Structure formats: structure tokens, C-alpha cells
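Exercise: predict the fold of this chain.
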Amino acid sequence: MDLGHVLHLLIPSWNSVAILALFFAYLAIAGSILPGKVVPGATLPDGSRLYYRCNGLLSLLLLVGLLGFGAKMDFVSLTAISDRGFELLSTTFLFSVLVTLVLYAAGCKSSNRGSSLKPHVTGNLLHDWWFGIQLNPQFMGIDLKFFFVRAGMMGWLFINLSVLARSIQDGTLSQSMILFQLFCALYILDYFFHEEYMTSTWDIIAERLGFMLVFGDLVWIPFTFSIQGWWLLSNKVELGTAAVVANCLTFLIGYMVFRGANKQKHVFKKNPKAPIWGRPARVIGGKLLASGYWGIARHCNYLGDLLLALSFSLPCGISSPVPYFYPIYLLILLIWRERRDEARCAEKYKEIWAEYRKLVPWRILPYVY
């Protein structure tokens, strides 16, 4: 595919604008009216707490059902997204730029002194636009940070499903495509099944909402995490039995570590006295969990995330580095984020963090890093 053709495909169309607008409108309506567990967020510095309606799984399943019915009645095309992948990419990117400029302008005008809406302005426009200036900006009662994360995860699944539909229509469906689709679908469904755990993550409780998060949620997650599916549309891969077994084990181990670590952290924040692996939790300074996965590595959840990312790429074989963009990028990102986490925790917990580092010397991978 030549550069000129790619640039032409990147030109946004009204169809891509309509798809994106309908998707956001559905999520806003469904997220507001569908039943779901209401979960309290972390306590903010001013003592306030936000509450999140965790109905993402119901919203997702309902939308899948509606699209399936629409396709059966010939109202919608299952390949609409895969047919317009590049235009949707550019349209979503432009939306991310525009919405973060609005967030910056609205934040600068805000006089709210509460922790979630208090502006943090450095005076450096690029820095403030990139990292954001408000912790939890809202629009019509919708917490935008939580909304954009949900949109990105659902967008990833629908891109994959549209690629799968294209593969079936083209007659190129392969074992590799099935494995990739299965692993991603299980991961995304599990994410929404445990959506309340998201409320205690670093992104939700500490990062302000700027271009970095909005672009990451709406563009980076759905359009780069699905690269393997696009690649498999035009590349045939034959996997042996050993490769399939190894791929499945990588996914299962990654899931066990990722989900287990995040669950332990979430449960500990809700109830510090809850047992970990059947034993009383070991806590440093009354604040830092040093039991279970968190007694093995200080950022063990990152290890699980990396193994899962690798499992999404392994079905593509090893003939090209392109399908491994996601795990390579994620490795760089998580090491950078781990360094930021370490600096923040060292400043926040001081001698308690130093004691925790002595007890748990490994950052992500025990005996390696």
C-alpha cells in the first residue's frame, strides 16, 4: 500500500463521524440508564468521593445484541468498522485533540476548589494540555475519564469483531485469527466483569484528564491493540500444536497474575484485614500491601499485563515484528510508568516505601528486574 493511498484513506468522512457519534451517544445513554453496581471511588484529598455505575458489561452485551440484530435485518454492516479503519482512526484522533482543548479551556475557567475539579495550571500550555489540569472533569453528569476508558475498551472489541467478520467474508479465517480473537475477547469481557477494579487504578485516582489519557483511551488502545488482527487479514500463519499450547499457557499465566494482583490490591483497599492467599495480609507501615503477588514484585500486575499482550501477538508467529508492536510498546510504557510510580511512592510514603523496597526488591519480574 503506497503512502498516497494511505493518506487518502486517512481523510475523515461523514460516515466515520456518524459511527463515532452514535457510539458515544449509545455509551452515554446506556451508561446513565442501565442498572449496575454503584461503586465508591478512592477518597480524594478533600475527603470527597466519586461514585461509579459499573454497568459496562451490560452495555457491551446489549450493544453486541443490537448490532447483531441490525446486521440480520440488513440495517448495519458487520464490516463497517474494518472497511473504514483508517478514517475512523483519523476521526477519533481529531476528536481527541478537540475534546482535550475544550477540557483545557473549561478547566482554566473553573473556580471549583474541590479535589476532582480544581485546576492545576503550570502555565505551560503544552504540558497542561498533555497531562490535563482537572482530575475528574464531567459533562452532563458523566465522569469523562471513566467514560473514555470504557469507550476505548469497547472500541477495541468492536474493531476486532469487524476484522473477524471481514476475515470470514474473505474466506481467510485461520486458527491464528481465532486464537487472537478469543484471547482479546476473554480479556475485554473479564475487564468489564471486574469493571469496579478500575476505580482503584492509578489512572482513575491520580492522573488528570488531558490529551495523554484521552488519546490513550480512544485512539491508542482500540487502534494499536488490534494491529494483530489487521495483520492476520493479509498474512497466513500456520501454528503447530506446541505453539498453540505455549500461547494458551502464556495467556492463562498472564491472566492469573494480572487479575489476581489487581484483585488483591482492590480488596486490600476496601478491607485491609482481608486474608491474602488464605493468610493475614502483611502490611508495611499500615499502608503498603506486601502479601500475595505484591510480596513478589512491587509492580507484579505489570508482569501479567505484559504476558497478556504477548499472548495476543504470538498467534501471528515470528515472521514479522509488526504484530509485536503492542507488547514492545507496552514494555516501554510500563517501565516508564513504573519509574513514575516509584518516584511518587517514595515521596508519598518516605521511610515506609524504603522498608517495602527492602522487603520486595524486585520491580516487575523477580530475579530479572
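Check your answer against the key: The chain has a mean pLDDT of 90.
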